[in-house]
Amino acid sequence: MPSEKESRSRRREWDLSPSQWDWDCPATRRRLEELYFREQDYIGAGSEDVRNFWAFFERLRRFQSRRTESEPTPSCHSQAESPTIAHRLDLPRQYDPRYRINLSVLSADMEGAIRGRRGDSSIPQERLSEFRAALLHYLDFTQKQSFAKLAKLQRERAALPISQYRDQLLRAVAQNQVVVIAGDTGCGKSTQVPQFLLAAGYSHVACTQPRRIACISLAKRVGFESLHQYGNQVGYQIRFESTRSPATKIVFLTEGLLLRQVQREPTLPGYHVLIADEVHERHLHSDFLLGVLRRLLPARPDLKLVLMSATINIRLFSG
């Protein structure tokens, strides 16, 4: 238990006048992070978003100080330069509070915690309001960036050749237990088909790859395109390494690893769709896996199997 002397010292540390307040003080930042960046908050403790916020906060302070300096002598020239300054500081040119994220919804118990914790009542309310406003600006700014990135990714995905066959592919999967997809290299099969299936309601999709490096790179790409946290809804699973979690809905794994899962669970109850990619590469694991899956399908009528390749013999695999 801290002594009364330590408590008074802590109160004096936070009981600063506006002119004495130092945003760059490590103790100040550490205390604000304890209040606003907890594990359950929108910006989690110790995450990269915390570092990004403080970098944004520094740019915001510089922008506000420059704007304050230019306010006493406004001119047409200074007004014309303000958008340029905002652009140079990576700040939004206009901020509409109607579209900002309400932080009180994200941390409903935060205000009570601030008032209830010993010593926190001495933090100047003016500084808390200033910090909260900066945090709302940051959340709004990152949200705008995410929307812009998502729009660009959607345009890139729509330009892929596989996109024009999306509805036809989903109908084929819904009407048949086994579907064969043949498409040229680079048409988007490996990255788009799992996302098509996930969006259509197939919540547990596994895509096998003959090489481990392909599992890792595809998981990163699909996670980037879907803007989900890497290793959460999209992950990979290879020997001695895995980013799979209970929340994972699309997993890229090697053929040998799926065979080991069949040994433990012969019916593979954890999957709704299995995608066998690059099936034209004939080797021991791929041929044995296809044989196992062929015997598994009658026991799992709800399981969908998608075979994909750039140079596939459709007659051979559809027979």
TrEMBL record:
InterPro entries: DEAD/DEAH_box_helicase_dom, Helicase_ATP-bd, P-loop_NTPase
Ranges where the Helicase ATP-binding domain occurs: 170-319
GO molecular function: ATP binding; helicase activity; hydrolase activity; RNA binding
Top-level taxon of origin: Eukaryota
Keywords carried by this UniProt record: ATP-binding, Helicase, Hydrolase, Nucleotide-binding
SMART domains for this protein: DEXDc
Protein's name according to its UniProt entry: Helicase ATP-binding domain-containing protein
Species the sequence originates in: Buteo japonicus
Phylogenetic classification of the source organism: Eukaryota, Metazoa, Chordata, Craniata, Vertebrata
